[in-house]
User: Fold these one by one.
Assistant:
Number 1:
Amino acid sequence: MLDHLLNGFATALQPMNLAIAFLGSIIGTVIGVLPGLGPTATIAMLLPLVFTMSPVAAMIMLTSIYYGAMYGGSTTSILVNIPGESASVITTIDGHKMAKQGRAGAALAIAAIGSFIAGTLAVMVLTIVGKPVAGLSLKFGPAEFFSLMLFGLATVASLAGRKISKALVTTVVGLMIATVGIDLVSGAPRFTFGNPFLSDGIDFIVVAMGVFALAEVVTTAREIWAGTQPGVVKADKVWLSWKDFTYSLPAILRGSFFGFLVGMLPGAGATLSTFIAYNVEKRLAKHPERYGTGDIRGVANPESANNAASGASLIPLLSLGIPGGGATAVMLGALMMLDITPGPLMFEKHGALLWALIASMYVGNAILVVLNWPLVNVFARIMAVPARFLMPIVLVICTVGVWSISQSSVDLVCTAFAGLVGYYMRRHGWPVEPLVLGLILGGRMESSYRQALIISKGSHGIFLEKPISLALLLAAVAFLVAPPILARLRRTRVVAAPVHA
Amino acid sequence: MVTAKKLVTRARLEGLVITLVALGYIWQVRNIPALFQMPGVPGPAAFPTLLGFALGVVGVWRLLRGAPAEEQAPDGEDVVEVRREAAAGVGARARGWLAAHGRFCGLWIVVLGYFVFMPELGFPLGSALALAAMGRLLGERRWPVVVGGAVVVTAVLHLAFAKGLGVRLPLGVLSFLGK
């Protein structure tokens, strides 16, 4: 296995391929940093670039663009509180707070370094245990997947703390939005109101731009008018201190572990891994109250999980031909473009190409770190642009991002409506993240639910009969029920305790 | 005695809206055609029905109970604002409301108008107008900066997206320029 990997590196490190990876990373970062243009849109726009390239070069270019765009997506999360893609939604929680405190440079740097470390670990683990654990993912049937998604949603809802009932509402609303469009199993139109533009459903970007970008623009405007806007935020340090790094390292390692674990399940994807890893990290922390206030570990952990999951998702892709998330879906497309069908025999039939692909993912991560020495400085300066100039420009770029999906005015109207709702939610303490995750996972969750019921001939007992599914359901209930009970017990103890004057 | 003010709280109104949304959703579920549905196998309406009922239950619970005790705890920014508003006099509050909410409503009109009318107006004209209006609303007083900035930013973005990345941006009322 190691020989194959070394051969892969030999291919990926050829000067021409290295130059392609560098170019792809730069282009991906520059486009991905525009709010509303996530990795999928970036890849779609730049796909014509690779048509004339050799298979290996094309694959390296695509993976580099993808990683660059992912990093660009994290950058917008940190700087302007707008996630560029679903996997960086959770990064907004602490990342943007850090930027507001003048620590944008450190946040951007730990995102790049965390991603690099997680990518390194993922490639190492993939090389050692990739083939043996491929069979494990087969143990996950539809019932287990449904329970896994439910567990993911429960962890996110539980992040809301004392606002858990609000989080449950927004989760269900997110799942409801995901039901809009043509039902893929029966072909029946659902909630489309006869509008063909709604047949494909409502894209994540359409809702995210509303609830994040529009709400952010209006919130910032109110801060400007009220005189509470911090004004020009100067970055204290443009790079990371050693103390920050050592403080974040355990979070990076745990994020990598959970990212890999969730990422290797077919269809689970990087997004779910970031939410689960963040939640577990918060619960394990000595001072969980620091999360959500601009703690650097709140950036390091999900960014690492995201990257480890991208690496791990190669396992189901290569062994089963099922993409685990955006990164692997892109690679699946690239492989099919090259007339290669993923499956159990891929390592035997197209080993050289595959190892070159794995190596190029790693090289792409390394290039991003190198690239970010100068770029962190440039990006951090975005915070120095006065909000009265920055926010209108952000709004227009977001509009282009939404428009570029399907050139539909229905999408724009949906974004506007999501903006109104998102602003209300923000103003009155309704958590937005569960809504977004519900929307992202809704489709997969429903198909798993229906497949499981088809297998069990309509009996819901299937979710309790399968041990993994049952364990996940119990864990989901524990995540939802334990925090309020513990809080109540704590309150009771405080009241019962004698007061010493 | 329970006063109307105590009975009609924001949480209860939210509960009412959530319940109505759930009812509307369940009503719409009934319109989903059951195509190729095998007996005993969940069709396209099964999952949405589940969601509709789940939302309905939470909505009714919120409507009846109001905000749970956990949510009523001090909530940072909102509480500060409430205290600040309470500290101000009636006249000052009214003036403050007009000053803040006039611009607030104006901003929403600009933002929503841009999203709704941009395809018809076209990206260049719609964006330039929206940028200028927002710049002004957000406090930029220099007209040359407002207008010049809006035109330059629109031109740069149009060139970058339409020419550089091949995004098909609508020209709207300026579509004769594209011919």
Number 2:
Amino acid sequence: MKFLPILLLVVTQWATAQSYSDHARLSQRLKTLESSNSQSAKLTSLAKTAGGKDIWLLEIGSGDRSNRPAIAVLGGVEGSHLLGVELAVGFAEKLLASANTDSVKTLLANTTFYVLPNLSPDATEQYFAKVKYERSGNTTATDDDRDGRLNEDPFEDLNSDGQITWIRVEDQTGKWKVHPADPRIMVMANAEKGEQGKYNLVSEGNDNDKDNKFNEDGEGGVHFNKSLTFDPPYFTPGAGEHPVSEIENRAVLDYLYERFNVFAVVTFGPANNLSEPWKFDKSKNSGRIPGGVFENDAKQNKLASDIYKKAVTLKDAPTAGPQKGDVSQWAYFHYGRQSFSTPGWWAPKFEIPKDSASAKKYKANDDKNTDVDFIRWADKENVDVFMNWTKISHPDFPNMNAEIGGFKPFVKTNPPYSFVDKLATEHTKFLVTIASKRPQADLVNLKTESLDGGVTRITVTIQNKGLFPAVTEVAKNNNWIKLVKIALVTDQQIVGGKKITLLPNLEAGESKTISWLVKGKGKVTIEAGAPQTGFKTLNVSL
Amino acid sequence: MKRIAFILFILITTNALGQDVFRAAGSPENPKVPVSWNHYNTHAGITDICRKLAAAYPDLVQLSSMGKSFQGRDMWVMTITDFKKGKPEEKPALYIDGNIHSNEIQGTEFALYTAWYLLESYNSIAFIKELLGDKVFYIVPTINPDARDNFMKEPNTPHSPRSGMIQVDNDRDGQLNEDYMDDLDKDGHITNMIRKSSKGRYKKDPADPRRLIPVKADEAGEYEILGSEGIDNDGDGRVNEDGTGYYDPNRDWGWKWQPNYIQNGAYKYPFSLPENRNIRDFVMAHPNIAGAQSFHNSGGMILRGPGAEEDAATYNAEDSRIYDAIGKKGETLIPGYKYMVVYRDLYTVWGGELDWFYGSRGVYTFSNELFNSYQYFHKTRDDDDFASGESYDFDKDLLFGDAVVNWHEFDHPQFGKIEIGGVKKNFTRANPGFLLESDAHRNMAFCVYHAWSTPKLEITEMSEKSLGGGLTEITVTVNNTRMMPTHASQDLKYKIERPDYITITGPKVIAGMIVENRDLNLTNEQKNNPATIEVDNIPGMSAVTVRWIVTGAGKYGIKVDSRKGGVVVKQK
């Protein structure tokens, strides 16, 4: 009964949230979680960004957290993806809200979650700013076009509506035209098909430095999801001068590299390998630098994907491969853990209604343009995603017909907030199921046989009870993943067998039998495991 | 009268200090800071030399700390230039560091020697005086001070620790550094353990029994080799498998970095080591660095990138020409040293320092592997391999046995009766004392050539032509009289450093342009901010021409402002 009021408080907290959370609100939600769950949640600020925002880490688990198999849950890897933040913190809230049900209680005693809800807090704040635009970069000053001048050509909110949209300008030398199915949607004219452009399309703002590029060097910064170490996109805007150059990247990596118990990283970000798992392709790993998932690891990815599709009801996910320098590939290729990533939401496929009356409203979307589908879905659901094209006078296009409009920022990857609760519930289910399949070292079939002369043969089998291996295939030679160790601790003399055995791996379900010969009587302890499998200890009296 | 007395005083003082010495060509015979170049220095010793130089030559050197090492030692950097001639940040610079691998100690002394030589020769050698007027040297004697002291003060082999001092679990058993090498005989050196064995395939060399040699296929052996001095401290059946470090500071840099399972020695991510972060910050804050040099050992190599075949395209033909010219000059200046490409002639290195300097910053960079077996008896070998045979002869006849520990018996807790002996940690890789100074001098001369080859900009033409109607056309030519361009081609490809600015002050500028071809009058107008023409590059041994159309002719000034080429101004 003691827990009930706390539970209610937590429920109220997220139930009353009506919109995405800015940094202050997120901080408050996390602090509330910690204070309501002092036994099983601990909040730490890993660092403060250049913009003065905390990189929050919420550790969840009621046992010896650093020695329990763990999942790292990362949100806000992409600064324009507010939903990622919401799913990460929403997971923490929903999990802890049911912390005293038997199943969750057991889970928390044996598993750890490291929730890092927002890795781009400088960038996400732009969603709440006076002028909203999709921002990925932190507040580090960067010369995005590398011309020696900083931030000389930012966006301008020309129509003072508090958001950055698009400008289209009628121009017979332009490369753009309207889509035949919906004149609101702009597409590139295809010269090979004899199409001719009629418009120029630029982002909302002026060409301040008169270089014919619009808004190519505005404020910020380095993108978290573009500046990690796997295949980094050198010298591109947002990549930083080298990978992991930023305070927050370093803080997160320093922290995670020292968390040897993490067996999986779940990222809420642009890449999706849960709707469609990464596939093994031998040719990608023919060189000395692996470029694709390993065969055995692909099986685990498939397993996780199956769990995901059961837990999360969204269908028809668009393909979303990894990007250069992103988190999902770092977590797999360099951190060496299972890496699962999902955007958490996408607009469902739009089908033109079958009955002819409603169908008449729509022209055929022959090239299956996703923007056309998206705006039709939004219209049907009454979701406000578009600003209709409106005349504007633009100093860079004097005497030309310029209009402002287009998709509003954030709408394509962040659904209306009313969608979020269900998404968080489903993703929590996914995370809890993955956690229940964690690698688990167990010691079974202990046998002691007395031989002549006071010598005892001790035999025991170590087994992985989980559905994930102790060591991923990609990490078999990676120093940052521990090996499963079996040690015999005794004051007696070991006359046969190794005091310490390190196993190269313990696959899902795999077992291995080990024996020792010990001379003498007394207590013997067998310790087995690794941080990512948990440890098991057996005491034997000889 | 007063003045004469003063001069007399100086003469007498000089005479008093230097009365017994006679200058050997090219060397300071009476230095303000006497340093003997036949021993090595701990971090405290380095600090002392740096401070003395800074105190003796306040107009030529400034000493500062780049930041602290992992264990809190200062990483000293000496900024050496003629501070009375221009601002240091407005002159092309050569960056020099040593000792990235903690056991590769002589790089520090070579860097210190370079600093000392430049300072002590400024007044006596006109070329050096001019060089310090034009250029800046940033000299960092050790960039791995923690483990340098560990190498000197704790038991080590010639090859250890190499790493820095952050602990790493190398055998992945959950324990950090739990099985070091053990100095069983307590002599401060980790040498080898051998044991008499019927299975052994070695014997003591009859010509020099301190040396173990393999027996022939049909010959009975006498000894087996048990490895470096040590015991199985943690009882896992392996000896010395998790010692000091281990990571490699030269696999920690931000260009084409790869993780430890691809590139052994990589730590967590590029610049995950504090010492390297300090250097990165320093280099980013000093964009005038046009060339860089790091000192390693050994083998007598002048190395350039790329470190990996997959990165071969980064080093394109134009830049390779510059590298080749400097590298081949080095082969001449340092006999026995070979100019080599890391991946092609040595081995693959991902995330090395020289690749970051070049790939990420567009700075021409060499790593010299100091000392080689050629210096023993001036014999050329195909395979340096620390020249085990020659090194024993050299030790016997020139060092009189000081560099080798003779075999002596030891009772080992796990191996029983063994013998311990072999080369000391200060031999085979580090220069023996009497060979330090000449090798340092030659490598210093190589650095001087590199520094001299950085861009030197001169405004060689300022001409005016009346266009009528009060308009004047002003044409300016800027020459680069040295080999290096202001922007390496890697720099141009990725716009690493901003363009060079050529600015006119005085008249009202109507238009500005780059003259692409003067004979055919091909020009390229710059519409935005025409008073400051931005040129992508001023190539080596070449020139650029710019032109303005102005009103109100008369006096005007030209300023050339190049990050790596320096700042030059001229009035007319």
